[in-house]
Amino acid sequence: MKVLEMYEPAMCCQTGICGPTVDPQLLEISGIYDHINKSGNCEAKRYNLSQDTQAFVDNGTAIDLIHKNGKKILPITLIDGEVVKTGAYPSVEEFQEFSGVDLSDISSQ
């Protein structure tokens, strides 16, 4: 089973979809992650800098990229430990390609 990991900037909560104004992109990302995890074909994990600091420390690749490039490198997306995208969230199509999970019923914004 593939493992998709995303190392994200600091957010107010685990998913970033709380508070009075919700970022529609983060809402879409949460839906995509739920869909991928429910598929049983890929395990999708998210870590944000304020909630999951230890995950950044434990992942040598993520912490090295941040040390070399600063926080602008976030989010960092990995598949099976390999970096596939940095500096922006993947599109629905990229998530589909990375995870191997059919996301055709999710529209990209």
Automatic annotation (TrEMBL):
Record GO biological process: negative regulation of DNA-templated transcription; response to arsenic-containing substance
GO molecular function: DNA binding
Pfam families: ArsD (PF06953)
Coiled-coil annotated residue ranges, if any: none
Protein name: Arsenite efflux transporter metallochaperone ArsD
Gene: arsD
